[in-house]
Amino acid sequence: MKFTLLLALGSLVSAGFYDKSPVMELDATNFDSVVLTNDTSIVEFYAPWCGHCRNLQPEYVKTGKHLQDIAVVGAVDCDKAKNKPLCSKYRVEGFPTLVVFRPPKVNLDKANDKKYIHATEVYLGPRKAKAMVEFVTNRMKNYTKRFATLTKLFEWAQVDSGRVKCVVLTQKDRLTPFLKSLAVDFLGAVDFSYLPLNKNKEEVYEVFEIDPDHEKAVLAVYHDGKWTKHTGDMSKSSITEFISQYADVESIVEHREYKRAILKGEKPKKKGGKKQRKHKQARDEL
Ligand SMILES: *[C@@H]1O[C@H](CO)[C@@H](O)[C@H](O)[C@H]1NC(C)=O
Ligand SMILES: *[C@@H]1O[C@H](CO)[C@@H](O)[C@H](O)[C@H]1NC(C)=O
């Protein structure tokens, strides 16, 4: 009796270690398209039968929840025959092995002649969500610019980089992982900056018509010599919709859909890298 029950449970667990969780089950067919990108990723190489993997599972799911829309939290089942080459490529010798993948910094204003190679780092810190989240967010590339004054912000906005300029006016003085991830998501299409609202408060409130009681963070795009405020919520999808009026976000949306499908356990096909058309602006379509 007991024996059959255990068997049944065992097969349930191995059916999908991270099914219906914010952790992406990756395999040899999608690993590179998800991990070897401008995103920062943490990947757990595991085996479903390993006790330490099972202990890590709840904390790793929490990590995935915290980093949703910010960084990639993935897992590779090294017990599966088709994944074995991937696990040996990254020299996985014990389970679980947590590896953080750091993309190289892209220089947008220079043709990149350097090879695009990710740095890998085995995570040896505490297996707690908080520690893992901190470790990953600390390793995300910072493509944002911080401005302390409106004058500096306007100077920057007026320089034509060939990309759309965006500012986040925020009560927080420090750069948040969410803002860092926005700049990574839109890399090459939109330049992001932020201006903490603790300085020159009144002036900023006036210029951007901010109601400080109701607007804790405001995102605005510089277009045709003026700032336009985003009036929706600060979710990635809402921000993306807003920005799509000014920049070509097609490939960004496509990649996000691709990741979402993998998260749901589907087998999406990666569309052949359509080059992003820079500069396509809303008025072209009107
Ligand atoms: C991010 O980088 C920009 C320069 O590109 C810098 O102004 C800003 O202070 C940096 N932010 C942090 C938190 O390091
Ligand atoms: C990283 O971003 C740059 C700028 O948008 C882009 O040219 C490059 O293809 C991206 N790299 C990857 C691997 O997606």
Automatic annotation (TrEMBL):
SUPFAM superfamilies: Thioredoxin-like
Keyword Signal recorded: yes
Lineage: Eukaryota, Fungi, Dikarya, Ascomycota, Saccharomycotina
Keywords (A to Z) from UniProt: Signal
Protein name: Thioredoxin-domain-containing protein
Pfam families, sorted: Thioredoxin
Residue span(s) of domain Thioredoxin: 1-141
PROSITE patterns cross-referenced by the UniProt entry: THIOREDOXIN_1, THIOREDOXIN_2
